[in-house]
Structures are given as C-alpha cells and as structure tokens.
Amino acid sequence: MADRAFSRNPLILTDQTAARFLSEPWSVRYFLPFLGREASASVVAGELGVDIGSVTYRIKKMLELGLLSCTRMEARAGRPIRHYRSSADSVFVPLELTPMVSIGELLRTGRRDSWSELEAGQEAAWLRLGRDQGWGIHLYRQPSGGVNRDFVPRSLLANEQFWPAVLADSAPAVWDQFAAMHLTRPRAKQFQRRLSELIAEYVEDPGPSELPTARYICHLALAPTASP
Q1: What percentage of the chain carries pLDDT values higher than 70?
Q2: Phi/psi of residue 181, each to 5°?
Q3: Model confidence at 6, in pLDDT bands (50, 70, 90)?
Q4: Disulfide-capable partner of 125 in 8, 32, 89, 172 (CB 3.0 to 4.6 Å)?
Q5: Residues 6 or more apart in contact with residue 42 via CB below 8 angstroms
Q6: Considering all CA atoms of the chain, what is the largest pairwise distance in Å, rounded to the nearest integer?
Q7: Which own/partner pairs from 51-54 qualify as long-range (CB within 8 Å, at least 24 positions apart)?
Q8: Cβ–Cβ contacts within 10 Å for residue 49, how many?
C-alpha cells in the first residue's frame, strides 16, 4: 500500500446514490479502508473480517458510483492483483442527499458502530473486574443533592473498595460515567477545552515506545440541557 499526501479539498458529493452508500454504516465500512490509501480487495477483506466476494461486490459498486479508482495492476502468476484508492482523500456527504432527516439522526447513525464497539469493550472489561460480584442498579442521592443511577456490583454497596480496585494498575483501563453539573458558561467552555486537550494529549503520546500498545476507544461528550 502506498500513501499519497492528504487532499485538503474535499470531494463534495452531488449524487444521491453515492451519498446514501457513504451514509449507511453497513456500506461505508467497505469504503473507509480505501480512503486516502491504496489497498487490494484481499487486504480489505482481511481487515474487515469478511469474505473477499463481499468486498469485490462493493468495489464494483463504488467504481460505478465514482467513489473509487483502480490505481495499478500488480502482476503475478494467474490474474493480476488490482489495487484501488478513493477518488479523493477527503469526501463530504451533504445531509440533504442522505435518507436522514435531521442532525440528530445523522449523529446517531454515525455513532452506531463506535457505540457497539465501545459497549462490547466495556462489558468485557467490567466482567473481568467483577464477574461474580452480582451486578445491579444502584440508586442513591449524593450529599450535594444530585441523584445517581450507577450500574455496579453488589460489593460496592457494602464498602468503598470497588472504585480503588477499578483504578488499580492490575485492573483493565475502563471507565464509564455520566455526570449532571451546573456550570457558568465560562466554566463550561473551560471544561470543553480541557476535554479536547485531554484527547489530543493521549492521541499524540501513547506512552514509551518500548512498551506494547493496545487499541482503546474513548467517547467524550458535553452538552447543555433544556432541563434546569
């Protein structure tokens, strides 16, 4: 695979069929491996964990829609290997060309695959911490007056040792928390910027190069609400 320089001028789609293909999670997953890089059908099939026939079928469709181009033919015994790349290194899909009717639906659709991956990872990690501890829903009011609804093991109800165990070096690096808070606008903007900086810090510095890395998925969100 050979990478080219990233194009700063996105391809703005005008075709509704192409827009629909790139707006649906089940189809766009076949496009993303070719975005901004060259790849063959067999490489993409391996990355996605699907059979090569499903990839070649989508490649044909993406070629028809003008989303892919064949970049080169690699000679070998028998049929040559075709390599493909996205027609542009950056693509913009206008909402009005998709089946989605609102920004809310656009956000939910775009997050669907990431949410599934995040939830699966969280479940596996939490079970490693407390598979036999009797998980349930813990409802209580904090001293500050706020009401909490936590999904925790029964051991948390008897003592406060669960959270130190979660943060221990030997435990999986997993976290999940919703927090309702009342902030002034300047304080909320400060919080927003700190969240942005926090993500950037860990993306740019994964840790010492001599140590192995693992893939993590993180979702940070902050929004004002209509309720007081």
Answers
A1: 89
A2: -145, 155
A3: very low
A4: 172
A5: 52, 55, 81
A6: 73
A7: 54/30
A8: 6
pLDDT in tens, 148-157: 777 777 766 6
Q: Are 149 and 170 in contact (CB under 8 A)?
A: no
Residue with tokens 């009342």: 182
CA nearest neighbour of 54 among 30, 86, 28: 30
Q: Which helix (DSSP H) or strand (DSSP E) does residue 152 occupy? A: strand 147-153
pTM for this one?
A: 0.60
Looking at residues 69-83, what average pLDDT do you find?
A: 89
The fold of 11-97 is Arc Repressor Mutant, subunit A (1.10.10)
In whole angstroms, what is the distance from residue 68 CA to residue 31 CA? 8
- What is the spatial distance between Cα 49 and Cα 110, in angstroms, rounded to a whole number? 21
Q: 58 and 33 in contact (C-beta within 8 Å)?
A: no
DSSP secondary structure string for all residues of 82-144: EEEEESSSSEE--GGGSS--SHHHHHHHHHHHHHHHHHHHHHHHHHHHHTTS-EEEEEEE-TT
Q: Where in the chain is the domain with CATH 1.10.10.10?
A: 11-97
Residues 36, 3: Cα–Cα separation, whole Å: 7
Sign of the CA dihedral 93, 96, 99, 101? positive
Residue written as token pair 């109800």 = 157
The stretches of the chain forming alpha helices (DSSP H) are 16-23, 25-31, 41-48, 52-64, 103-130, 155-158, 162-167, 185-204
